């Protein structure tokens, strides 16, 4: 039996343009996600001049802003950040579910990584935990996922070129 080849991205070949699209709603939490994402990108060699930040009102509006960024800016990757905190109405399920589904569809439609760093939590405490305290910083994690996917897609592109 022949061994299965393994392909994965790294954090070395990650240069290029990245756009962070941010839902301002719950900005007291989201601002920390943005800081974590920018810090992670810069620490891994992405030039600060190649990082753009686009602000949308909230998570509901993120997919449209991401779509327009993908159409116009054509970045290596998009990092979507926001926070949807459960309240006393079903609004949470609608916003969180539609936002997540739309972001997933956009990355497939544009063949470009869209890292989902939109928090969907039950309480403000959970949001704070995921924005840089006990549970890490989900903005950092989303930026790391974006970079790894950029690297992985570049490996596929190189393999495709070699096959020609």
Automatic annotation (TrEMBL):
Keywords attached to this entry: Riboflavin biosynthesis, Transferase
Pathway connected to this protein: Cofactor biosynthesis; riboflavin biosynthesis; riboflavin from 2-hydroxy-3-oxobutyl phosphate and 5-amino-6-(D-ribitylamino)uracil: step 1/2
Transmembrane regions: none
Residues involved in (2S)-2-hydroxy-3-oxobutyl phosphate binding: 88-89, 130
Record: residues binding 5-amino-6-(D-ribitylamino)uracil: 25, 59-61, 83-85, 116
Enzyme class of the recorded protein, top EC level: transferase
Keyword Secreted on entry: no
E.C. number: 2.5.1.78
Catalytic reactions on record: (2S)-2-hydroxy-3-oxobutyl phosphate + 5-amino-6-(D-ribitylamino)uracil = 6,7-dimethyl-8-(1-D-ribityl)lumazine + phosphate + 2 H2O + H(+)
Molecular function terms, GO-annotated: 6,7-dimethyl-8-ribityllumazine synthase activity
Active site (UniProt): 91
Functional description taken from the UniProt entry: Catalyzes the formation of 6,7-dimethyl-8-ribityllumazine by condensation of 5-amino-6-(D-ribitylamino)uracil with 3,4-dihydroxy-2-butanone 4-phosphate. This is the penultimate step in the biosynthesis of riboflavin.
Family, per entry: Belongs to the DMRL synthase family.
Summary of subunit composition and partner proteins: Forms an icosahedral capsid composed of 60 subunits, arranged as a dodecamer of pentamers.
Record's protein name: 6,7-dimethyl-8-ribityllumazine synthase
Organism: Halomonas koreensis
Gene transcribed to yield this protein: ribE
């Amino acid at each position: 039996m022949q061994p299965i080849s393994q392909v994965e991205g790294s954090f070395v070949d990650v240069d290029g343009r990245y756009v962070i699209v941010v839902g301002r709603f719950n900005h007291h939490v989201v601002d920390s996600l943005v800081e974590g994402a920018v810090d992670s990108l810069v620490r891994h060699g992405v030039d600060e001049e190649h990082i753009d930040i686009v602000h949308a009102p909230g998570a509901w509006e993120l997919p449209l802003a991401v779509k327009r960024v993908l159409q116009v800016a054509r970045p290596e990757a998009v990092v979507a950040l926001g926070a949807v905190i459960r309240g006393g109405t079903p609004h949470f399920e609608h916003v969180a579910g539609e936002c997540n589904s739309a972001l997933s569809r956009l990355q497939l439609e544009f063949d470009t990584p869209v890292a989902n760093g939109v928090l969907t939590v039950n309480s403000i405490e959970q949001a704070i935990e995921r924005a840089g305290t006990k549970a890490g910083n989900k903005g950092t994690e989303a930026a790391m996922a974006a970079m790894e996917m950029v690297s992985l897609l570049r490996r596929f592109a190189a393999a495709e070129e070699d096959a020609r």
